[in-house]
Structure formats: structure tokens, C-alpha cells
Amino acid sequence: MSKFTLHNLNTAPIKSKPLLENAIAGFGTIPNLLAVMAEAPSTLEAYQKLHELFLSSELTNDEKTVVWQSINVEHQCHYCVPAHSLIAHVMEVSNSLNQALVNNQPLPNERLETLRETTLEIVRNRGHASPSTLQRFFEAGYTKQNLLEIIVGVAQKVMSNYVNHLADTPIDDMFKKYT
Fold this sequence. Notes:
The longest helix is centred in the last third of the chain and has 24 residues, at 144-167. It contains ten helices and no strands. The chain is mainly α. Helix 4 runs parallel beside helix 6 and helix 5 (80-90) runs antiparallel to helix 6. The chain has a domain at 59-176: AhpD-like. Helix content is 65%, strand content 0%.
């Protein structure tokens, strides 16, 4: 297993420094995931941009959490599950919803369960979803825009989950209580 550097403003490549400064402005610190990604400025920039784009989607905070945590749990990401548990808390998503996602338990309503099932089918089948899954998704009130927004969430989570697997990213103290 390769060891990855947890970069800071002194050790990061020049192109990563302003991106890490953005992280400090948003989090008050540099989360370890971003410290690892700083090794490749394009990776860090792409991840931050995808995060920003997904946050600006039409999905509610509950729905964003369903997409993120469904993927994190499916990918068994040791880092992102607790990180997104804290993010869910900050976004005022109920702890019961987040715990149901983390523990693969039924969600509080059929609409969110449909979103989880659709997201997981897209992840498991590499972008394919059956006509019946798509029909249930649209009947639940979701739109084609929402379907495409899931793809942004998938892209973001593939980046972070895979980086964490390769780097064995240490969990930040601020996330540890959610492990």
C-alpha cells in the first residue's frame, strides 16, 4: 500500500494551494480527503467543483444525503460514511434518516426509498437502470433533471470513495464520532 501525503499549504503543489485555502474557508481546516487529493491539483479541483455542482442541484438536503450515503455505503467507504454523517447533521438532515442509510434500513418514506433504489441501480449497473426502476422514479415525482443530478453525485462519490480506498485516508477527528 502506498502512503499518500496529507498536504497542507506548505507542502501542496502550487496549483492546489488556492483550492486548499477554499477548504479552510469552508471547513476551518483541510479535511484529510482534500489533503490527499491535493497531490493532483486537477483531482482536487474536479472534486470540489462536483461537490459545488451537486450542492446546487434541485434535490433537497434529505435527497442529497440519500444519494451520497447510498453510494458511500455501497462502496464501503470508511471515510465518506462518517464524513457525510457530519455533513447531514450540518444540513439539518434527521439523524434517523442518516442512520437508516448507514445501516441499510428502510427509509422513512417511499419517495426517498425510490431515490435510494434508483441511485444504487445506477451505481451497480454502471449507469443502466431498468424501465421499471425509471418508471417508479418518475412516478415518485422525480424529474429527468433529478436523474441527471444523481449522475453528478455518483461522479463525486466515485472520486472520493476511490481515493479513500487507494490512500486509506485517515478519518479526521471531526468525523470520528460518526464512525
